[in-house]
Amino acid sequence: MKFLLFTFVGAHLLALNSGKAIFRNDTSQRTFQEIKEEIARYGDVAKAIIDLAVYGKAQNRSYERLALLVDTVGSRLSGSKGLEKAIQIMCQNLKEDGLENVHLEPVKIPHWERGEESAVMLEPRMQKMAILGLGSSIGTPPEGITAEVLVVTSFDELRRRAQEARGKIVVYNQPYTNYSNTVKYRVQGAVEAAKVGALASLIRSVASFSIYSPHTGIQEYQDGVPQIPTACITVEDAEMMSRMVSRGSKIVIQLKMGAKNYPDADSFNTVAEIIGSKYPEQVVLVSGHLDSWDVGQGAMDDGGGAFISWEALSLIQDLGLRPKRTLRLVLWTAEEQGGVGAFHYYQSHKANISNYSLVMESDAGTFLPSGLQFTGSEKARAIMKEVMSLLQPINVTQVFSAGEGTDINFWIQDGVPGASLLDDLYKYFSFHHSRGDTMTAMDPKQMNVAAAVWAVVSYVVADMEEMLPRS
Hints:
With 471 residues, this protein is α/β, with parallel strands linked by helices.
């Protein structure tokens, strides 16, 4: 990779006895060249981690651990017995792995169940349609809702045709561009449809590829707007109905949903550590979320991210390494409901925010990594590029922008550097929140590489003499 040449104009890196790093005018300074040389000295350690994870005794371990959990427990919806069981199993696993300070931190989380659900097209012909209710949706009356359909491709079109929407089921056939742009239809579709008097909404699944598979996810109601039932449908059915109405056909659907919202349930964030040898109060956090949706096995989203985070600590421990800073693993609860567990953790720990050097989250798949997404100051980015150069043996060296993630955004917004793993997002969103999110979508060799990246980055940042600089 090309190294970033960095010139400081009146700003220097000051190494403090506390182990923190700041950039300012001072007679004491470390040059960027000195930092580069410090990082380069981790070459042998990085190679040892890579060899153990990818070629050695630890290869396929994260995959096998994950398969055992998801085959045993299955899906892990917020508030479910499956999530509760998974948390208890993982707490025991981390203790048996010899990690330190293993404990559970209590959180109240949402509890929603989909119940029985169906959608049947009655006109212009009979067809049973595949649906998945969206998280927090209300149910229909027992007899269901039978109504004519209005198909739109955007919120703007819905507003233009607001008078046609009253008393109908709004079907969104929004084109997929990318996840961040398209997911707003899933999140806000029910509210926008309710504003114009619709009885229910059906949203084309937010997916990069489909084989007649609906993709669920969270949706949000809005105060002062009537709550209506909402579900996702397949890409194929959304496009079919769009073609039908373009020919002048009238579409009538009967929708039945037994969804219910219950009082918040008790849950936990799961925490384990390798305590730092020199600056134990300072933290590099690695994380993934343990909860999932109630379809598939939650293997990809986010079993893979949770288990390579555990694997990172296991690899470091196996090699007898103990970084200067504490490496803290957090397996979040209720991420799918908007980062509920992570927000609770942030509220509980933000008083020590100055001691967090880097927060890392893997929640976009553990396929073959392209590199690391990073958010932080330019000085920190330059350091991270040097750290990633240590991964040249597996050709994963790039540093991209946008390191944010649902569970670490609270810290990033307060100035803590953040990183997330980047890999094949097309594949990821083909399986995302669907029944296809199973171990069959996972590849043990790719998980090995992802775990190696995660372990090298977290260890080196935790062991460097100074914390990553902030803006």
